[in-house]
Structure formats: C-alpha cells, structure tokens
Specification:
The protein contains nine helices and 19 strands. With about 300 residues, it is α/β, with parallel strands linked by helices. A hairpin with a 4-residue loop joins strand 17 and strand 18. The longest helix has 11 residues, at about 60-70.
Length: about 300
C-alpha cells in the first residue's frame, strides 16, 4: 500500500487541486492510501512514513500561513528530496521553496530549498495564460492565473516551454525538478490534464501501469489545434494528446468513477459532470480556449 499525503487541503485547494490526489487514488484504488493533513496537525512526512507528498495552490495570504507551518520542517523536506520521495507542488505553492517572496517593501522568507525569489505584482492586472512544454519525452499542458512571477537561473527546471511563458515572461524554463521533486505554476487538476505524467508518477511509486484504471484509455489519441495559444507551433503541425487531456469537458465514468470521454452531439454543458466542474476549478478555461477535435471515437 502506497501512502500519499495531501497537505492542508482546507488551505491549499484554490482551484480544486485536491483532485490531483483523488485522481491517482482512483487509478489504483486498492494500492493507494491518502493521508489528509490538517494545518493544525503534524505532517506525516515529518516521520518519513509517506511515499508521496502533494501541495496545492493557495491565496497569497494563505501562502504566509503555510510557510510558517512548513519552515520548521525544512530539513525533513530536504531529506525527502535526497531520498527520492515523490513530491508534487502546483500553482503558487512553487514559490514557497525559493529564498523569499517579495511583496512591495516586504520580503517574506521562503524555505530556501531552491535558489530563486518570487515577486508579487498585486497592483497589476492578473496574468492569465496557458502553456505547452516538454519534460523528458512527454508533452505537458498547463494553465496559469497569477499576480506573481519567479526569477532565477532555474537550472533545475521541470518543463521546457514551447508555447507560453516559463517562471516569468523572459524564460522558457517552467517549474522545479530535482530527483523526484516536481513543482509547476500550473493550476488545478494538472494530472487530469496530463494523464501520461500521472501514469509516470504511478510508475515511480512502483505501481504497474496495468493496475491503473486509466491504462486502456491512455492509449487513445486525440488531435488538437494550436491556433488559440500564442506563438508559432513548435513542430509546424497538429499535436497528438490523449482523451484524458480533455477530461474537464467530460462526464464521469460510472464504472471507475473517473472522467469519461467527450460524446459527440452534446454541448460542453451537457457533457461535463457538475461535480467534476466544481473540482476542476480554473483549468476549464484552458479547454474553452484550446480548440479540440475528437477522432476515432465511434467505439465509445
């Protein structure tokens, strides 16, 4: 049984991020135990008894609360990273691991596990955009909505951006990655949007892909146009992604309680599960802007 710790879901669930962990658990329900840690409790990772830790997006005010809680466990977090324990952070949770967060004249001390700083631009217009990038041999999609950017060399970055921006508008390096630690500015249900990456995480947990309820669906391709995203298409042609990368359009698969596939002849409103819509949060805007075209769905 693999243990995944969901840190502070009452504080760090701004765009339905907890569904990233739910998604993994529903892939392998007999193999994964989820530990939900309240902000008033000691994290399970402090005792080293977890296989993966997840931290989601939060408000700027809650960032300072979460930082005050996690700073005391800085050395345990570093030890987990050195031991290759899986860690995934999404949204502005990525900023907690840098040196500091600057908010006007204030400098909020970070955990200092990575050499970068973040700057809040609270008086400016919120930045909203999507990105497409590459990690290892996977194409990854993401959506961001933020008042802050991060600055540094980012030699230990996660995603190489092909379309969109990285940690700030002047870099194509996005997120953080060292050993089995992954962090990205992408919001919401990042693993639903990128099921092949979710599958890779399951493999890192030692869970065989055949045990995953999504394994059959993961192999079915879908094409998408690039026209609605800024910049030229990196390959000069349409890209192949999976059906599960459009899962936020979908209704729930009753058999596995997982996102189902897009049905032709239905509107997005008819096709989307209300529960999934509530849990998916801000990521639905990505699908409103990326034009998707189903193909080869006659057998669904």
């Amino acid at each position: 049984m693999k243990k995944i710790e969901l840190l502070f879901p009452e504080l760090c669930n701004l765009y339905g991020e907890r569904y990233n962990v739910t998604y993994l658990q529903r892939c392998c329900p007999e193999e994964i135990q989820v530990i939900e840690t309240n902000h008033k409790d000691e994290p399970a990772f402090a005792a080293g008894d977890v296989d993966m830790v997840y931290l989601g997006c939060m408000t700027e005010r809650k960032q300072e609360t979460v930082l005050s809680l996690l700073r005391r466990y800085k050395h345990q977090l570093q030890a987990l990273m050195d031991k290759n324990v899986l860690f995934l952070a999404t949204g502005n949770a990525v900023e907690l691991f840098g040196r500091e967060i600057r908010d006007g004249e204030r400098a909020i001390e970070g955990m200092g596990l990575f050499d970068f700083c973040s700057v809040r631009y609270m008086k400016e217009t919120r930045h909203n955009s999507q990105f497409i990038g590459v990690w290892d041999d996977l194409t990854l999609l993401g959506h961001r909505s933020q008042f802050s950017f991060s600055y540094g060399d980012f030699e230990e970055s996660f995603i190489h951006i092909q379309r969109g921006i990285g940690m700030n508008p002047d870099t194509d390096r996005e997120g953080l990655h060292i050993n089995n630690f992954f962090a990205t500015y992408s919001l919401g249900s990042f693993l639903i949007l990128n099921p092949h990456f979710a599958k890779r995480l399951l493999e890192k947990l030692g869970l065989a892909p055949p045990a995953c309820a999504l394994n059959r669906k993961l192999q079915r391709p879908m094409t998408t146009g690039w026209r609605s995203l800024p910049g030229p298409c990196p390959c000069g042609r349409k890209e192949t992604i999976t059906h599960e990368q459009t899962a936020l359009f979908a209704e729930t698969d009753e058999k596995h309680q997982l996102p189902g596939l897009y049905r032709r002849g239905q509107t997005r409103q008819q096709n989307q599960s209300p529960a999934l819509a509530r849990q998916s949060g801000g990521l639905s805007s990505l699908h409103r802007q990326v034009r998707l075209r189903p193909c080869g769905l006659r057998d669904l």
